[in-house]
Write a structure and sequence with these properties.
The complex is a heterotrimer of chains A (504), B (302) and C (274). Chain A contains 16 helices and 20 strands. Chain A is of the alpha+beta class and 504 residues long. Chain A has a domain of 207 residues: Dipeptide-binding Protein, domain 3, CATH 3.10.105.10. In chain A, strands 1, 2, 9, 10, 11, 12, 13, 14, 17 and 18 form a ten-stranded mixed sheet that branches. By secondary structure, chain B is mainly α. Chain B folds into two domains: 59 residues, no CATH class; 226 residues, MetI-like (MetI-like fold), CATH 1.10.3720.10. In chain B, helix 9 crosses helix 11. With 274 residues, chain C is mostly helical. The chains are: A alpha+beta (504), B mainly alpha (302), C mainly alpha (274). Chains in contact: A-B, A-C, B-C. At the B-C interface, helix 1, helix 6, helix 7, helix 9 and helix 12 of B face helix 4, helix 5, helix 6, helix 8 and helix 9 of C.
C-alpha cells in the first residue's frame, strides 16, 4: 500500500534555462518576504504566515514531504503502509537522523510533536486536521502507528501539513523559539517581524539539499519596498508580486519572474443559512453576474485561471474537466433574481485586502459587472485588522481565499462538508456529505473520480460559494538564483525554497 | 498619574477591540476549542481587571512581562527598538529643527519676496504629498535611478555607526520633508505677527536694521508658539512614523505597536504605549518650561 | 461690495490662490457634467497613458483618471472642509476656555488632551475606527477629534499670551464676562496663527486619509478621494509611471491655493505695509 497516491499536483512552471545547471553550494540567500509580523512565533502550532512557514521548514522536517510533482515522498519517515481499509497507518522512521542539539530522532519525538496539536488543551491551528487521529503510538524506536477514526486513503498528505514538523520530545513553551529541528539550516538569530538568520546544518541528513551557507529572511510588508529592495540588490528574492506591475518588474535588469499555478483560489462565500443567500436562485444570480475573464485580466493580470465555482484546481488529481465553464450571463442572472423575487434588492459584499490582495478592487469590479444585470451590490470595505475574526464566518457575504489543499477530500472536509470547521458558507447538502465520506475510504480510482466529479458539480450548481479565479504564486528573484522543477502546493517552491534552490 | 490613566485607557481600548490575541494569531484557522485552550494558556480567560492588576503589579516591580504572542520578554523586544526610533528621530530633528527655524526667519525677513514665495510653494508641495509617496519618490530617484542610498533601512545592532547613518539617510530625508513645512510656516507666521507690535515699530523708528529687529527683537518674542510646534513635531518623529518604518523596513517601535494592536498583544501595546506617552509628556513639559523662560510676562506671574 | 473692493486691492498671489480654490470648487460641483465617464466605470486597460479619450490616462483598475480626479475633488474637499471646521470649533473653543478660565478647567482639559495626544495619532485612529467601523461620518469625527487636540494646544498657547496683555486686563477690570473676553479680545488677536494653522490642517486631512488607507482603513471604495487615489496607484512610481503624481499634484495644487489665501489674510491681519 506504499504510496497509493500518484500525481495530484502538476504545477506549470515557467521554463528557465537554469534547469540544466548542477546545484552548487555557497552564498548568502536574502529573502525579502511579505507575511511576517513582530508577533510571530516558532511554535509550529501557531505559525500564521509565509515568513515563519519558510523559516520553520528551513529548521525542521515533516514525516512526509510533497515533491515538486505533487506526490507525497518520504522525509523523516522512510516508508509507510496502511491497513486494507486505510484506517491504520504505520510509518517507519529514517535511521540516524540528528537534531541540531545532537539528539537522535526516535519515535517518541514524532508522537509528541503530533500530540502537540491534539487533545483538549491544544491551541494548534492544525487541530482540525489531526482530529481524525484516534490514537498514535510509538512501536519501538523507529516505528509510529496512527489509528484513524475512519478510512483515509490520503493520510500521508495530511502528514505534509506545515504545522506538523518534528521537534525533539519535551520541547515546550519558549523552547520552540530556539528552532531546534532536523532541518537543513540552524537558527542563528530571530527577531520576529524583522529578520531571521540561519546557517547551513553541516550535519544535514538529506542529500543534495540546503545549498546556501546562510539564509537571511527579511520581513518586508510593503510591496513597493520589496520591489525596490530587489531592484537595488538588497535582497535576492521577493514573494507575492503585485501582478499589476509584474510586466514592468520583468523588464528590470537581473530580475526573473517565477510563476506557478497551484491550488490557491479566491472565493466569495455566501452564508446559505442567512437570507437572502438561503435561496439558491439568489446564489445562481450572483454566480452568473460576474465576468470572470475580465476579473482575471484586471485583478490578476492573467496570472491565474478562471474558476468554475468549485474549489478543485485543474492541477488536482480528480479535477472535473468535463464540467462546462460558467460564463458571465446577465440575462440568466436577471432571470434567477426575478425568480427569487428580489429584483431591486441591494446586496452587501464585505471586502478587505486581508482576504487577498486586490479583494476590494475585485469587489468593486463585481459591483460593476452585476450592475449590467441590474443587480445592485454595495461594497463594504472592512478593516484588514481582525478581518478573519469579525467578518469571515460572520457576515452573510464576504471575500476570502483558500490556499487550496493537495487532495479533494482535504479541501471538501475542510470547508464544504456540513460538519467542517470552516464551512464558511454554512452549507449542508446531504448527497454531497455522503459522497465525501464514501470517497474518502474508496480505493478504486475510477469510482473515486466519478464521486469527486459529482461533488464538484453539486458545489458548482448548489453551493454557497462563488469562485471567480485561481491565482498563481508569483515571485521575483535575482537571475543568479537557480532551481529545479517548482512545487505548487505552497508559495516559494512549496515553501521549501531555502533547501531546494542555489546560486549559479 | 497621567501615565497611570493612559495605561488604563490603553488597556480598555485594546479590550474594546473586537476579537483577542488567540483569534488574531490563529486567524482563518481558529476554532472554538483551540481558541479556548489558547486563552487558558495565556490566562486570557481571567476577567480583565485581574489581568490589568497583575500587569500593573509587574510594572511597579519594574517588569514589563512577556509578549503573549511568542513569550519573549517585552524588555528585549522593545529595548533595541526604542534605541532605533530615538536614533532616527534625533538625526531627523538635528537637521529639520534648525533648518525650519532658519527658513522661517529668513522667510519672515524677506516676506513677499521671491525667496519667501518660492520656499512657501516648495514646502507646501512637499507636505501635500502623503509621506509614503514622498518615500517612494525618493527611493525611485536616489536608490533605484542613482544608486546612492539603500532602499531599505533594516539596521541591526552589529552595524557600525557610519553604516547606520548611511542606511537611514532616506527615511531621515523623508521625515525632514514632512515636518519642515509645518515648523517653518509657524515660525514665519509667529514672527510676522510680532512684527506688527508697537515695540517693533519703536525699534524701527530707532533706526535699527531689519535683520537685527527680526532676529533679536521679534524672534525671541515669537518663541512660545515656535517651541510648541517643535515639541509637537518631535513627538511625532518618535511616535508617529509607522508608515516610514513600514516603507523602509526600519525596526522601530511604531511597527511593533501596530502589529501588537492588530494581534491584540496587550502587554506589548501597554509597554510601547507608555513609552510613547512618556516621551510625549517629557517633551511637552520641556516645551512649557522653555515657553515660560522665553516669555518675561509668564516668567513673573502677577 | 466691500469684498470686491478688497479683492481689487489684493496682490496677484491671493488672486491666484482664489482662482485655484474656485476651480476646485467648480470641479467639485460640476463633476457629473464635466467628467466624460462614470465615477466607477471601467473604461479600459490598467494605467493607460494619456490620450484624447482619457485626458490623464487610466488608474490601477482601468477607470478614467480625469473622471476620478473630478469626483475626488467633490468628496475630498467636502470631507476635508467639514473635518477641519469641526476640529477648529471644538479645539479653539476648548483652548480659549482653558486659557481664560485657568485653574481646574485648564488643568482637566489640558490633561485630557495630553492623554489623547500621548498615544500616536495614527494608531489611535486605527483602534477607534476598528471598533466603530469606517463610514465617512466616523472618519470625519475621528479625524476632527484628533486634529482638535492640536488646535487646542495652539489656541491655548496663543490665548495665554494674549490673556496677559494689558487690554485684556483692562477689559477684565471693566467687569466683562469670560464669553465677552473670548469673543472680543482673544479671538480677533488669536486669529492669525489659527488661520495659518487652518491652511495646513486642511491639507493634513487628505494626508491622514491617505495614511489610513495605507494601513487598510480609509474611505469606502469605489468612492473616489485623492488620498486613496495616491495610495492605490503609489506603486506605479517605482516603475516610472506618473499616474499617482496626478492626485498628489491635485492635493498640492489645492493646498498651495488655500495657503495663498491664508497668507493674504495674515498679511491683512498683521496690518503691515510693504
Amino acid at each position: 500500500m506504499e504510496e497509493t497516491v500518484t500525481a495530484t499536483l502538476s504545477p506549470i512552471c515557467v521554463p528557465l534555462p537554469a534547469h540544466a545547471d548542477t546545484p552548487k553550494k555557497g552564498g548568502r540567500l536574502r529573502l525579502g518576504l511579505s507575511g511576517g509580523s513582530t508577533t510571530d512565533s516558532l511554535d509550529p502550532a501557531t505559525i500564521p504566515d509565509a515568513v515563519p512557514q519558510s523559516v520553520n521548514w528551513s529548521l525542521r522536517n515533516n514525516l512526509v514531504e510533497i515533491s515538486a510533482d505533487g506526490k507525497p515522498v518520504p522525509e523523516l519517515a522512510e516508508s509507510w503502509e496502511s491497513s486494507p481499509d486505510a484506517s491504520q497507518w504505520i510509518f517507519k522512521l529514517r535511521q540516524g537522523v540528528e537534531f541540531h542539539n545532537g539528539k537522535t530522532l526516535d519515535a517518541q519525538d514524532v508522537v509528541e510533536s503530533i500530540n502537540h496539536h491534539r487533545g483538549k488543551d491544544s491551541k494548534s491551528a492544525a487541530k482540525g486536521i489531526v482530529d481524525p487521529i484516534k490514537e498514535i503510538k510509538a512501536d519501538g524506536k523507529d516505528t509510529v502507528v496512527f489509528v484513524l477514526d475512519g478510512g483515509n486513503a490520503d493520510f500521508p498528505f495530511i502528514m505534509c501539513d506545515y504545522h506538523l514538523t518534528i521537534q525533539p520530545a519535551g520541547t515546550k513553551g519558549a523552547e520552540f523559539e530556539k528552532g531546534i529541528g532536523t532541518g537543513g539550516y540552524m537558527l542563528v538569530a530571530h527577531e520576529p517581524g524583522v529578520r531571521a538568520l540561519t546557517k547551513r546544518n553541516p550535519n544535514y541528513w538529506k542529500e543534495g539539499s540546503a545549498y546556501f551557507d546562510e539564509v537571511e529572511t527579511i520581513s518586508i510588508a510593503d510591496y513597493s519596498a520589496r520591489t525596490n529592495a530587489l531592484k537595488t540588490g538588497q535582497v535576492d528574492l521577493i514573494n507575492r508580486c503585485d501582478v499589476k506591475t509584474v510586466h514592468l518588474l520583468k523588464k528590470a535588469p537581473g530580475v526573473q519572474i517565477v510563476r506557478v499555478t497551484g491550488t490557491k483560489h479566491y472565493t466569495l462565500p455566501m452564508r446559505t443559512d442567512m437570507a437572502p443567500f438561503d435561496n439558491n436562485d439568489v446564489r445562481m444570480a450572483l454566480k452568473y453576474a460576474i465576468d470572470r475573464e475580465q476579473m482575471l485580466k484586471l485583478i490578476l493580470r492573467g496570472y491565474g485561471s478562471v474558476g468554475n465555482d468549485h474549489p478543485i484546481a485543474p492541477s488536482n488529481r480528480y479535477h472535473a474537466a468535463d464540467l462546462p465553464q460558467r460564463k458571465f450571463d446577465p440575462d440568466k442572472a436577471k432571470f434567477h433574481l426575478k425568480k427569487a423575487g428580489l429584483s431591486g434588492h441591494t446586496f452587501k459584499l464585505h471586502a478587505a485586502d486581508a482576504a487577498f490582495g486586490g479583494a476590494v478592487d475585485a469587489a468593486v469590479l463585481l459591483k460593476e459587472h452585476a450592475a449590467k444585470a441590474g443587480i445592485m451590490i454595495e461594497v463594504v470595505k472592512e478593516p484588514n485588522d481582525g478581518y478573519w475574526s469579525n467578518v469571515w464566518l460572520k457576515k452573510a457575504w464576504c471575500t476570502c481565499y483558500w490556499s487550496g489543499r493537495a487532495t479533494e477530500d482535504w479541501m471538501f472536509s475542510t470547508a464544504y462538508a456540513a460538519d467542517a470547521k470552516w464551512n464558511d458558507t454554512f452549507w449542508k447538502h446531504d448527497r454531497f456529505n455522503q459522497l465525501v465520506t464514501a470517497a474518502r475510504a474508496e480505493l478504486d480510482d475510477a469510482k473515486r473520480r466519478e464521486m469527486y466529479g459529482e461533488c464538484q458539480k453539486i458545489i458548482r450548481d448548489e453551493g454557497g460559494v462563488i469562485i471567480p479565479m485561481f491565482a498563481d504564486y508569483v515571485e521575483a528573484s535575482s537571475n543568479k538564483l537557480r532551481h529545479g522543477k517548482l512545487a505548487g502546493n505552497w508559495e516559494m517552491d512549496g515553501q521549501r525554497l531555502p533547501e531546494r534552490w542555489w546560486f549559479a | 498619574m497621567t501615565l497611570f490613566i493612559i495605561s488604563i485607557l490603553i488597556f480598555v481600548g485594546v479590550e474594546a477591540l473586537p476579537g483577542d490575541l488567540t483569534e488574531a494569531v490563529l486567524g482563518q484557522s481558529a476554532t472554538p476549542e483551540t481558541v479556548a485552550a489558547f486563552r487558558k494558556e495565556l490566562k486570557l480567560d481571567l476577567p480583565p481587571h485581574i489581568r490589568y492588576l497583575s500587569w500593573l503589579g509587574g510594572i511597579v516591580r519594574g517588569e514589563f512581562g512577556n509578549s503573549l504572542a511568542n513569550g519573549r520578554p517585552i524588555a528585549d523586544l522593545i529595548g533595541w527598538r526604542i534605541g532605533n526610533s530615538l536614533f532616527l528621530a534625533a538625526t531627523t530633528a538635528a537637521i529639520a529643527v534648525p533648518l525650519s527655524i532658519l527658513l522661517g526667519i529668513v522667510a519672515a525677513l524677506y516676506r513677499n519676496s521671491f525667496f519667501d514665495r518660492a520656499i512657501s510653494m516648495v514646502t507646501l508641495s512637499t507636505i501635500s504629498f502623503p509621506e509614503f509617496f514622498v518615500a517612494y519618490i525618493l527611493i525611485a530617484l536616489l536608490s533605484v535611478q542613482l544608486i546612492i542610498f539603500p532602499s531599505i533601512s533594516n539596521i541591526n545592532a552589529q552595524m557600525p555607526f557610519l553604516e547606520k547613518i548611511h542606511a537611514i539617510v532616506l527615511p531621515c530625508l523623508t521625515l525632514t520633508l514632512v515636518v519642515v513645512a509645518h515648523m517653518m510656516r509657524q515660525t514665519r507666521a509667529a514672527i510676522i505677527n510680532i512684527l506688527a507690535s508697537p515695540f517693533i515699530e519703536m525699534a524701527k523708528l530707532k533706526g535699527l536694521k531689519k535683520t537685527r529687529i527680526v532676529i533679536f527683537h521679534a524672534f525671541p518674542n515669537a518663541l512660545s508658539p515656535v517651541i510648541n510646534v517643535v515639541a509637537v513635531n518631535l513627538a511625532y518623529l518618535v511616535a508617529g512614523v509607522v508608515i516610514v518604518e513600514v516603507v523602509f523596513v526600519f525596526p522601530g517601535l511604531g511597527q511593533l505597536l501596530v502589529d501588537s494592536v492588530s494581534k491584540r498583544d496587550i502587554p506589548v501595546v501597554q509597554a510601547s504605549g507608555l513609552i510613547f506617552a512618556s516621551v510625549y509628556i517629557t517633551l511637552n513639559l520641556l516645551a512649557d518650561m522653555l515657553s515660560i523662560i522665553s516669555n518675561p510676562r509668564l516668567r513673573n506671574p502677577k | 461690495m466691500a469684498f470686491f473692493k478688497l479683492l481689487r486691492s489684493s496682490p496677484l498671489s491671493a488672486r491666484i490662490g482664489l482662482a485655484i480654490v474656485l476651480i476646485n470648487i467648480a470641479a467639485a460641483i460640476l463633476a457629473p457634467v464635466i467628467s466624460p465617464y462614470g465615477e466607477t466605470e471601467i473604461v479600459g486597460d490598467v494605467w493607460v497613458s494619456p490620450s484624447p479619450d482619457h485626458y490623464l490616462g487610466t488608474d490601477h483598475l482601468g477607470r478614467d483618471l480625469f473622471t476620478r480626479l473630478v469626483y475626488g475633488a467633490r468628496n475630498t474637499i467636502a470631507i476635508a472642509f467639514v473635518t477641519t471646521v469641526l476640529s477648529f470649533m471644538v479645539g479653539a473653543l476648548c483652548g480659549f476656555f482653558a486659557a481664560t478660565l485657568g485653574g481646574w478647567t485648564d488643568l482637566s482639559l489640558s490633561r485630557g488632551v495630553d492623554i489623547i495626544m500621548a498615544f500616536p495619532t495614527l494608531i489611535f485612529a486605527l483602534m477607534v475606527l476598528s471598533v466603530v467601523g469606517t463610514s465617512i461620518t466616523s472618519l470625519i469625527i475621528v479625524i476632527a477629534l484628533l486634529d482638535s487636540t492640536r488646535v487646542f494646544r495652539l489656541s491655548r498657547a496663543v490665548a495665554m499670551d494674549i490673556e496677559i496683555m494689558e487690554f485684556v486686563e483692562a477689559a477684565r477690570l471693566r467687569g466683562e464676562g469670560t464669553w465677552w473676553l473670548m469673543r472680543h479680545e482673544i479671538l480677533p488677536n488669536a486669529m492669525p496663527p489659527l488661520v495659518a494653522e487652518f491652511g495646513l490642517r486642511f491639507c493634513f486631512v487628505f494626508l491622514f486619509i491617505a495614511a489610513l488607507s495605507f494601513l487598510g482603513l480609509g474611505i469606502q471604495p469605489p468612492t473616489a478621494d485623492w488620498g486613496s487615489m495616491v495610495m492605490e496607484n503609489a506603486g506605479a512610481i517605482t516603475f516610472g509611471i506618473f499616474t499617482p503624481l496626478v492626485p498628489a499634484g491635485a492635493i498640492a495644487f489645492l493646498t498651495v491655493g488655500v495657503n495663498l489665501i491664508v497668507d493674504w489674510f495674515l498679511h491683512l491681519a498683521s496690518g503691515l505695509e510693504d
